Records
---
Amino acid sequence: MKQEADIGLIGLAVMGENLVLNMESRGFNVAVYNRTTQKVDDFLRGPGKDKKITGAHSVGDFVASLKTPRKVMLMVKAGAPVDEFIELLLPHLAPGDVIIDGGNSNFQDTIRRSSYVESKGFLYVGTGVSGGEEGALHGPSIMPGGSPAAWQHVKPIFQSIAAKVDDGTPCCDWVGENGAGHFVKMVHNGIEYGDMQLICEAYEIMSKLLGMNASAMYEIFKQWNTGDLDSYLVEITRDILGYRNGGGEVLVDKILDTAGQKGTGKWTSVTSLDLGVPLTLISEAVYARCLSALKEERVEASRLLKGPVPQFHGNREEFLRDLEKALYASKIVSYAQGFSLLRAAADEYHWKLNYGGIAMMWRGGCIIRSAFLGKIREAYEGKPDLPNLMLDPFFKSKLEGAQAAWRRVIAACVMQGIWTPAFTTALNYFDGYRSARLPANLLQAQRDYFGAHLYERVDKKRGEFFHTDWTGHGGATASSAYTV
């Protein structure tokens, strides 16, 4: 088969098909393959008809159609299918060829695969791709990492098909070695979980506490999308609240209140525990989905467990202004935690992450795109070693300006029995982070009491450990110490 395709893509599901069409529309010749070859034929007769797209019915023919160095992008289900296709491809590749995994793979798998593929003489890229069906077709956010030598080969294609910000900068740049790209995508998805949960809680507050219907909430989200909260997720929430089915009914009211997840939010939460980063808001968003899945239990519990009947007696317009500030402040916390996790991972895996650059990659194309991210970019460009986003002067001032409103909203929800786990944990994190002293001194005393785990003292140097015989009957042996 003649070598004519600039890149090949395996996996013709929605994302794969749209990425192929995006690449072709930017002037690239694309080869396609799918394990179910009928999908190849259907695609070439349908969306790919009369375009610079070549189909293949075997891996060998598919690879043979690619220009060297060959670039093969996998858009298949994460996990074993990625490993299976790597093994199918390796016998057909030559040194310097590039395998690209564009799915939602776990970054630890990407670290392993990158090392394995490089050991065979090839190059490997694990890249996050965000933006859903629309983004894949018109311009996604792309977060590539892996073999540094691969970047020169994939850069022209990736930056051409990526979303662009207002000045034309592509929402795609090199992230770092081995699993860095997929790690950044994982954190993106975790923040996405947090953003969505916060918006859902704002919706819950408006509905249950303020008694607003979908039309009234539509107007609020429409207004919010013109200010500080301008974002894709607020925009689509507005559209959802305004949508009516064929019978003129509000469709969102007809949707069952159980939410699913594909795992990336959970991975973010688990990884934060491994790295010792308090990712409380994203974790609450993951648990919120788990709680939503207990539909039958919740229905039964609602009959047996009684709480306050929500009643609002204040000024609704003032409360809505408070709610807007509370949502923005909670959003700051979510991103602050996400970027703290990126910093911890950079230290752990020796990645040189560009935090301002990551914010720019998320500025367009992806699900969490918003005006807000431009301020994050400015924060890290001004101080690349910023330990926490809340300490940046801009975000610090925003938190200060929102704090009273934030507390009023949460206090009202607690007193009225409105479920707001993400709003509440955001404020708790803020209060904990700004505390020079936390009650962990008592916790350390408890640990030393029952397990002789030792403690440090405020009047001694860090790293010097002590044990107390709290009962007068204990022995002199203590556990080994560790530095927090």
Note: The longest helix spans residues 316-349.
---
Amino acid sequence: MIGLGRMGANMTTRLLRGGHQVVVYDRSADAVKRSAAEGATGADSLADLVGKLAPPRTVWIMVPSGKPTDDTVSELLRLLSPGDAIVDGGNSNYKDSQARYALAKAAQIAFIDAGTSGGVWGLANGYCLMVGGDEDAVRRVEPVFTTLAPPNGYAYVGPSGAGHFSKMVHNGIEYGMLAAYGEGFEILEKSGFGYDLHQLAELWLHGSVVRSWLLELAELAFRDDPQLADIRGYVDDSGEGRWTVQAAIDENVPAPVITMALLSRFVSRQPESFSAKVIAALRNQFGGHAVKHEAPPEPVAST
């Protein structure tokens, strides 16, 4: 296992509990020590990790997408031998995965793209795995997948790129679901009825058509902080929503919900939307509608 962040470390623990022997590497020596304390074999470099594995080796990568994954794969291709396998369980773009597959194929090394869902709850609940690549290579690594996944939570979904493409769309759907919950609870919060949002979230988990695991997480969040007072409304994105929207454009598929959910995340990162300022100014110009002005800056005390 290369990369012992929130996902990689928990996946290592689940594999160890499932009876697998795991060699681990991370740039953080402390992260390696923590996994080693649970029974993993620590390595201090990629070369050391490869040297501690017996052929045919299986190396799982859980590092950020883009250049970190590129660099890791490039070095592994120099270190591994024909018949070995690389599994990328991160959120890589499926086109990048297909390019890495071609490079690995030329070196007679299998490259498997494993779309991985489950977050920090995966250790206890298991990870949903959407796996793409050459089927014979996937079947060889299957004991790892079935240990990480809950019952019926793993599937071979197709050739190279299919795993990460399906995970990309999965995350695009997630964007829309999160946006719907966010908008709904904001309407409730602003309604004036004084709703107990935790009560409603918990209520909807029983028999409601909108019940889901995400709603269970909303119930937990409102239980801990009923007004979400300690959370800033800044929503980041890790790329999959953008890629899903681009795929929809490329394939002429209308995807307004996912697209608007993505754009709403961009709005959340602005201290104040400039487009909203333009709209307010135009309404003032054509209809005389009142505008709210910025507060004047505080005077600076002279020294």
Note: The first helix runs from residue 6 to 17.
---
Amino acid sequence: MWKIAGVELKSRLLIGTARYPSPEVMQNAVIASGAEIVTVSLRRHGSNPGVQNVFWDSLRSLPVRLLPNTAGCHSVKEAVATAKMARELFDTNWIKLEVIGDDYNLQPDPFGLVQAARILAEDGFEVFPYMTDDLVLAERLLDAGCKILMPWAAPIGSGQGIVNPGALRTLRQRFLGVPIIVDAGLGKPSHAAEAMELGFDGVLLNTAIALAEDSVHMAKAFSLAVDAGRTGFESGMMPARDFAEPSTPVVGTPFWRKK
């Protein structure tokens, strides 16, 4: 069990609900993942209202807590307005805050992110800020009222895995009492296990599951990887060494050896 924003959870895997081939696949993938928190965009839209109705019905039927996001917002004003609409629609003060500063790699705008986070925190929101792995940005977000940090591993949807483990390790070591969830850029279950082995509290991903050939089995694979990585971290993993050390004791003389 672990706790985030005052809520106790069993699963440390958070997943998104976008880009699945169908609402049914999305629903089955969420169930297979064991995730208790799923993200959803207020800006979700489609050309077929009937399909959208099925999506929302599938989402409401799941035993999960919704984490609305401000995906697609490029300004403080836009992000704050979207967050307030999401609070009314989903009846939650949780918000995954995204303020995009670059359309090429979807990197967050650090200045706008801090400003929007402060406005929303003062308005009673529990802000989950999508950020880069920058230490100073993390400090500014905490000063703005955030109690959770969500640094990326790599750009959204890139599947590159952790591109800067040193920076993430620094964040984890500097803010030991702050829940930190690695968000974006994880493409393989091994990437999720690596993040958990570094001591992070959870991971959030979408594309790697939604676009897999078998989304349901991939969701299960990520669930197992997260559990394995966390168990490894809690067990105390052996450090890397620059020299060999035999795993079998060599002290003494074997009983069959003759002089």
Note: The beta strands are 2-4, 7-9, 13-16, 37-41, 65-69, 94-97, 126-131, 150-151, 181-183, 202-205.
